[in-house]
């Protein structure tokens, strides 16, 4: 449903009542506790050592399954346990350009920009796509990055996140399938989620935020085929995570502006997790620079709050820190 002013108020009332019922029924475990500097996860993180990388940007190389891989890392000024964001560029892109146009390095977090191996046609691509290199072990690469960064910097395991655009968004969902316990939340922009990407995936409840334009001519909003293989519609792959969280199937859709709808699933049995989708009406296969995120948008107040999608992602990540980072 698409909520107008009156409908929004009704949904709020429904959510409030449902929250009481959910609490009394004890549907699921309570929301993850927020980590503090006194939490055991910091003691386990070996943060008594001084940071091994200076503030600024650097490039590091690793060997994964006999293949040399590299990543770019930006370290902010400051000390103590810091959030970590892994940012995967799109098909045919380079990590340097991805860093530049997303503005992620301005966040108060350690940001890692892995570089994909060259696949079909000599263009960089990530595991899980029909055009990726057969040598791409990007699950192993991700594990190696986490090990390398955590050995050199004071990283908060409860604030470790991953995001990706297009083919990088597909890898982000592959990581949500294969390494769910290592990340507190996931963000996808223009995600290319192929059938092979999620083959055999049994999702655990997770916090996911997604952005996709309805006029995306590269990865169509309602799914399609590329390189001879089918990729999923946004509703199909998001539905895997709403079902994993036990959410009511019908989303709450709020028009936050003339071209953006915010879709969320507020009634879920797995408390502490959230799935949110920004449907950008008329949006193409680009990183959304500015989107309208006004509460209930112009429907209720006539006002507009234009915010970068990077800032929206960071707010989502910040709201979904978890206790520790255990799991595979």
What is this entry, summarized?
The chain is α/β, with parallel strands linked by helices. It has helices at residues 5-25, 40-44, 95-102, 138-152, 167-178, 234-244, 297-300, 309-318, and strands spanning 2-3, 56-64, 67-75, 82-88, 110-114, 117-118, 124-125, 155-165, 185-189, 208-213, 224-226, 229-231, 252-255, 260-264, 275-280, 290-292, 306-308.
How does this model look, in words?
The protein has helices spanning 5-25, 40-44, 95-102, 138-152, 167-178, 234-244, 297-300, 309-318; strands at residues 2-3, 56-64, 67-75, 82-88, 110-114, 117-118, 124-125, 155-165, 185-189, 208-213, 224-226, 229-231, 252-255, 260-264, 275-280, 290-292, 306-308. With 328 residues, the chain is α/β, with parallel strands linked by helices. Strands 1-13-14-15-10-9-8-4-5-3-2 form an 11-stranded mixed sheet, with helices on both faces. Strands 6-7 form a two-stranded antiparallel sheet. A two-stranded antiparallel ribbon has the order 11-12. The protein is globular, with a radius of gyration of 20 Å. Residues 3-45 and 296-304 have low confidence and may be disordered.
Number of beta strands: 17
Large-scale geometry: globular
CATH class: Alpha Beta
**Count of separate structural domains:** 1
Q: Determine the fraction of residues in helical runs and give it as a percent range.
A: 25-40%
Order of helices and strands: EHHEEEHEEEHEHEEEEHEEEEHEH
- Annotated CATH architecture: 3-Layer(aba) Sandwich
Question: What Rg, in angstroms, do the CA atoms define?
Answer: 20 Å
User: What is the average per-residue confidence, as pLDDT, rounded to a whole number?
Assistant: 83
Low-confidence sequence ranges: 3-45, 296-304
Helix vs. strand class: alpha/beta
> How does the major sheet shape up?
11 strands, mixed
Instruction: List the total number of helices.
Output: 8
Distance between the termini: 37 Å
CATH topology: Rossmann fold
């Amino acid at each position: 449903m698409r909520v107008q002013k009156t409908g929004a108020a009704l949904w709020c009332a429904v959510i409030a009542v449902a929250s009481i019922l959910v609490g009394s029924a004890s549907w699921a475990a309570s929301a993850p506790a927020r980590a503090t500097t006194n939490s055991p996860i910091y003691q386990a993180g070996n943060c008594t050592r001084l940071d091994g990388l200076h503030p600024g940007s650097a490039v590091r190389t690793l060997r994964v399954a006999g293949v040399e891989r590299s990543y770019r890392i930006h370290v902010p000024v400051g000390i103590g346990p810091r959030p970590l964001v892994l940012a995967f560029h799109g098909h045919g892109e380079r990590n340097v350009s991805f860093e530049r146009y997303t503005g992620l390095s301005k966040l108060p977090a350690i940001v890692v920009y892995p570089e994909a191996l060259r696949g079909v046609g000599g263009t960089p691509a990530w595991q899980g796509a029909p055009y990726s290199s057969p040598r791409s072990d990007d699950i192993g690469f991700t594990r190696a990055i986490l090990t390398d960064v955590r050995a050199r910097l004071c990283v908060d395991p409860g604030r470790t996140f991953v995001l990706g655009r297009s083919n990088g968004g597909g890898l982000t969902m592959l990581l949500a399938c294969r390494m769910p316990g290592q990340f507190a939340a996931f963000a996808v922009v223009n995600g290319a989620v192929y059938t092979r990407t999620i083959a055999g995936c049994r999702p655990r409840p997770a916090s996911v935020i997604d952005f996709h334009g309805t006029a995306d001519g590269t990865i169509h909003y309602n799914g399609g085929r590329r390189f001879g293989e089918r990729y999923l519609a946004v509703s199909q792959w998001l539905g895997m995570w709403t079902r994993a969280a036990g959410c009511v199937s019908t989303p709450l859709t709020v028009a936050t502006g003339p071209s953006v709808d915010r879709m969320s699933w507020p009634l879920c049995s797995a408390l502490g997790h959230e799935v949110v989708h920004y449907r950008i009406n008329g949006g193409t296969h680009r990183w959304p620079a500015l989107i309208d995120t006004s509460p209930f948008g112009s429907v209720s107040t006539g006002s507009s709050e234009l915010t970068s999608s990077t800032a929206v992602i960071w707010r989502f990540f910040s709201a979904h820190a978890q206790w520790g980072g255990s799991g595979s």
